[in-house]
Design brief:
It is a single chain. By secondary structure, this protein is an alpha+beta fold. It folds into 2 domains: 171 residues, Alpha-beta prism (UDP-n-acetylglucosamine1-carboxyvinyl-transferase, Chain); 92 residues, 2-Layer Sandwich (Dihydrodipicolinate Reductase, domain 2), CATH 3.30.360.20. The protein is 32% helix and 28% strand. It contains 8 helices and 15 strands. The strands form 4 sheets. A 4-stranded mixed beta sheet has the order 1-2-4-3, covered by helices on one side. A 4-stranded mixed beta sheet has the order 5-6-8-7, with helices on one face. The longest helix is centred in the middle third of the chain and has 17 residues. 53% of the residues are buried.
Length: 355
């Protein structure tokens, strides 16, 4: 049976498309997504959405219709979960992390490991920075039994991109469930402040400003690494922060530099977002809550997490997953407020014999 998804509902953006294609690939179930990004200023497929679909197509030998930029309808019919090597060149500063989101959901259930080389934007607006995957998403997914290696070989900033990421994502037997509650203890805070084709003091000033804001609120910083490069296609900067409590609470916050915005403001913005996340005492930040939904649904057994804020992206992801699986998420909380999310995962079996 073909699953039909209206791409304009709820959050109405690329999240619906990524999750629908990924679940189609994982379950071997054809899907049609209509009205893709219908409510956006530039509707239809953008380069990062298109390349995300094409990557999953290659990994699953899928039959696909509607794969052109601006397309508002996709028909996706996967043939297998083969895995293998892929090279994805977005050609712009389109976000590598958004391409990876779909690929990463498929990876645990493929016959072979996925060896992915991606070229595009690593730190761009309206998407998770690559550092978030390194320091927040992958450590959390490891708790579910997810196995991945990821290396950022070059950063890519807006508008030219050119960033390079190499990821190796391995099959598993099953993903395991997790249970995460609120935590009151103060965390260890680390981070990375980076700039490319700009003076190194930009990254240093971002880091100092973040430390000052956190120290004022009695949240000492363990370390913020300074990274500088003169070899990026476009100038850019950013800072990513991570707060951890023995792996139970892993929260992230970040900010991107832009022309006319002082480095001190960039660092302070990231620190202020992290303080807002920490104030809830939840174990999962709002962006991670969104990302975890597919994995909790596919994991083996009962999972429960507390999120710092229930976002429309999270609600949208829940809606899409429930179109594919015979399960129901229990959401206790209101939109834009802390919430608890629980689900009995289906325990989908993967393959570890061909790793």
């Amino acid at each position: 049976m073909v699953v039909e998804i209206d791409g304009s509902i709820l959050e109405g953006g690329g999240q619906i498309l990524r999750s629908a294609i990924a679940f189609s690939a994982v379950l071997g179930q054809p899907v049609i997504v209509n009205n893709i990004r219908a409510n956006r200023k530039t509707p239809g497929l953008r380069p990062q959405h298109l390349h995300g679909i094409l990557a999953v197509k290659t990994l699953t030998k899928a039959q696909v219709k509607g794969t052109h930029e601006g397309s508002n309808r996709i028909e996706f019919n996967p043939q297998n979960r083969q895995g293998g090597e892929i090279v994805v060149d977005i050609g712009t500063a389109g976000a590598i992390t958004l391409v990876l989101q779909g690929v990463m959901i498929v990876a645990p259930f493929c016959e072979h490991k996925i060896d992915a080389k991606l070229i595009g934007g690593t730190n761009v607006a309206w998407s998770p920075p690559i550092d978030y995957l390194h320091t927040i998403a992958l450590p959390r997914l490891k708790q579910l039994g997810y196995t991945a290696l990821m290396e950022t070989r070059k950063r890519g900033y807006y508008p030219r991109g050119g960033g390079q990421v190499h990821a190796i994502l391995s099959p598993v037997n099953k993903l395991t469930s997790i249970s995460l509650s609120t935590i009151k203890e103060k965390p260890i805070i680390n981070g990375i402040s980076h700039c490319g084709s700009l003076p190194q003091h930009v990254a240093e000033r971002q880091a100092r400003a973040a430390e000052d804001v956190l120290n004022e609120q009695d949240y000492p910083v363990s370390q913020i690494i300074i990274e500088h490069s003169d070899n990026t296609f476009s100038p850019g900067s950013g800072i990513s922060l991570a707060a951890t409590n023995n792996g139970e609470r892993i929260l992230g916050a970040d900010a991107i530099g832009r022309r006319g915005l002082r480095a001190e403001k960039v660092g302070a913005n990231a620190a202020q977002v992290l303080l807002q996340e920490l104030a809830t005492q939840a174990s999962v930040d709002q962006f991670q809550g969104d990302m975890l939904i597919p994995y909790l649904a596919l994991a083996d057994g009962f999972s429960s997490i507390t999120v710092t804020a229930l976002t429309m992206h999270t609600i949208t992801n829940i809606h899409v997953v429930e179109q594919f699986l015979d399960l129901k998420f229990d959401v206790q909380g209101e939109i834009n407020h802390p919430a608890r999310i629980s689900v009995n995962g289906v325990g989908l079996e993967g393959s570890v014999t061909s790793c």
